[in-house]
Amino acid sequence: MAEEELELDVNQPKGSKTTTILIVIIAVLVLVMGGVGAWLFFGSDDGDSSDSAKKEEKVLGPLKYLTLVPEFVVNFGPGSKVRYLQVDLQVATRDEAALETISTYRPVLRNDILIVLSGVSFEDLKERSGKEALQKKLLNTINKVVVSAGHAAPAGEHEEATTDDGHATETKNEHGTDTQVVEGPIENIYFTSFIMQ
């Protein structure tokens, strides 16, 4: 009896061997097709994309911050629940030349920022979305000054897009606010203090 338990059935039917080989072949084909599909999906640039990514990493340095001092203070119009807005701003960039441009054109920047701040109301700023919209508008304002200064505009003149009749063009949304995005070296601005009283 003990000898009967140790006997193994070595003779398997012929159909099961063919099935096993077929399953292995199908599994190998699925793996190969998956690999080819992944290679095509993710692309093969023969290392070009990794080289360009490394170059971009070298170009991008750490963020540098500049506080615009003194703080900005504007009055709200009559009939408002609060009387004034006081804002401290910091700009963030990786471009050292942009920081120098901001220092050089500080009076122009302060003027343009004060004009933007004077155009908002308490009702616009009581919600978070209003503050974020103001942040984007100020970012566009600062980038517009930095970019136009970098394009060698004569002193005291701003380059603006104009129509055939000489008027400045603006893009406005349904709330009447400027929605045009100005690409520039300033990546973001931050409110380090935001007081409405």
Structural features, described:
Helix content is 48%, strand content 17%. The protein is of the alpha+beta class. A hairpin with an 8-residue loop joins β1 and β2 (84-93). α5 packs antiparallel against α7. The model is unreliable at 152-177 (pLDDT under 50).
Give a brief outline of the structure.
With 197 residues, the chain is of the alpha+beta class. It contains 7 helices and 3 strands, in the order H-H-H-E-E-H-H-H-H-E. Strand 1 and strand 2 form a beta hairpin.
Any descriptors?
7 helices, single chain, Tetrahydropterin Synthase, Chain A, three-stranded antiparallel β-sheet, alpha+beta, elongated
Shape: elongated
Mean pLDDT: 78
One letter per element, helices H and strands E, the order comes to HHHEEHHHHE
What is the terminal separation in angstroms?
99 Å
CATH class value of the domain at 64-153 and 173-196:
Alpha Beta
Predict the CATH topology of the domain at 64-153 and 173-196: Tetrahydropterin Synthase, Chain A
Report the major sheet. Answer: 3 strands, antiparallel
Number of helices: 7
